[in-house]
Amino acid sequence: MAKAFGQPTDSNRLLSSLSPALRSLLEPHLHLTRFERQSVLQYPQETIGCVVFPVGCIGSMVAVGNDDRRIEVGLFGFEGMSGASVVMGVDTSPLEVFIQVAGDGYAIDTDVFRKLLRQHDELAAHFTRYIHCLNIQTTQTALSNGQAKLEERLARWLLMCHDRVPGDRISLTHEFLSVMLGVRRAGVTVGTHLLEGKGLIRAERGIISVLDREGLEKEARGSYGVAEKEYLRLFGKDRIER
Amino acid sequence: MAKAFGQPTDSNRLLSSLSPALRSLLEPHLHLTRFERQSVLQYPQETIGCVVFPVGCIGSMVAVGNDDRRIEVGLFGFEGMSGASVVMGVDTSPLEVFIQVAGDGYAIDTDVFRKLLRQHDELAAHFTRYIHCLNIQTTQTALSNGQAKLEERLARWLLMCHDRVPGDRISLTHEFLSVMLGVRRAGVTVGTHLLEGKGLIRAERGIISVLDREGLEKEARGSYGVAEKEYLRLFGKDRIER
DNA sequence: CCCTCTCCGTGCGATACTGTACCAAGGGGA
DNA sequence: TCCCCTTGGTACAGTATCGCACGGAGAGGG
């Protein structure tokens, strides 16, 4: 089975699925920017300075609690955007958003973006539908966190990441994964071995390669796929590219 | 410490915090209806027929997965509404929404509601801000499911329910709670004993009474409160009531 | 009053995952 | 080449929760 959103391209799918008229409203204000790993797009409860439409990078949204409790609640790449709260008409969020995989993205100033959203209902409606998909992703994360075993959550996460990255090699450490999933680093090691034992992935130092997507999806036992299907339903057919 | 949204009244706070002009747009279309326990407002992937603004009832949003996996991802009472997806411009959702505590609510036909949202930006913006709060609630649920112990999740849930119910007595069974939290029924029994042992609640057959809110909040270790604070920030001061 | 049904309390072994700790293997820089 | 730092593998005891199962207590109807 192929990646959920097709192969990543050098454009952002949320932008390219806009009608030309709407896209031309945004284009003058988009700045193609390189985002390095670990750079933070939003700090909890701080004003959101800009909104990012990734093309090559991947962003991660993390809920933070008391005493170092943190867990990833969602992630987005070339199919999505940061700054869900801005689309919702609010200028802060309790989430932390940071770059998990370095790459390019189109940035737009929050104030400019908000103004355009207010002036053009169709534009707002478009991004609002995306936020709907993102919300579904979060609900699936909640389900997964509550009911799935470590390997299942691991499989889900790898699939989501694989969808948003070119090729089959995902560059990450067990340590990083453990923070995202909110589990022990050693637990991730054991989990990857399990998936590797079934021939679904191959693990090298700092890299996990996806060998068998379909197998991973089976392994995820239904915790993967719902949000992706909804996205395809709503944004499936790109309007004329370029 | 008092309930997060103040005492429940015989009105819906989301409606009463609208400006009179906007409220008058909705009022002709609102039908005060009695909702019984267990009645379903939305089935997964089925068209959403109406949107409900509870006054006395409480609704529960549940994510459903493979083989009986289900878990509550959010809940709403007189401070909120059902049909988040409708506000987002989509007419289905993968969630199941049902009535958890019987009571009255204002129902409005989805098509009528959607039409009003499209025609009046301010109206849409108002409800969109609420959905933002609901999303935060879901992210906190994801955090809680992933990192909190049973008692903590239990404390969080009781607080959220307490906020939306008049008085301090919550009518529910361990069985029900176990389904909501996605844990064993027997686990809930043990958990309630633990909270009861600390003097935070009192459990009778089919009823849990909240004795010490502040204690419960401490027990929840930060998994309660974020979404509630955001709601108060955005909807804190009611506009002129009536 | 008894029967029945719902709800709650408890026990027991099994399992998933934790916290901690230590070591080994890659890999880049001096 | 040596060193050091990052990353990954493994172990072990401890804890949270599970699945299952059984018994008992409340409560309402006949």
TrEMBL record, chains A, B:
Domain HTH crp-type: 152-218
Top-level lineage group: Bacteria
One Pfam family per UniProt: HTH_Crp_2
Gene3D superfamilies: Jelly Rolls (2.60.120.10)
This protein's UniProt keywords: DNA-binding, Transcription, Transcription regulation
GO BP of this protein: regulation of DNA-templated transcription
Record-level Gene Ontology MF annotations: DNA binding
Presence of keyword Transcription: yes
Protein name: Crp-like helix-turn-helix domain protein
